[in-house]
What does this fold into?
Amino acid sequence: MSCCYDEPTNHLDIDTRQALIESINSFHGAVVIISHDPHILELTVDQFWLVENGKVTPYDGDMDDYRARLLRRR
It folds into this structure.
């Protein structure tokens, strides 16, 4: 049986979150991370993809660029 969790990192303590970050970063395969947690994203992601208007496109920027983009749209 498989199960999905919405934002499983929300309930992790600091040490476990750090262990997760280190494990993701040391993994030599591909990892797809979908999260609302900017801390996890900033420490693990080396390529962002933008999901918008029914399309998925590479995003040439980091979390700060994305935040600025959102603010400009408001």
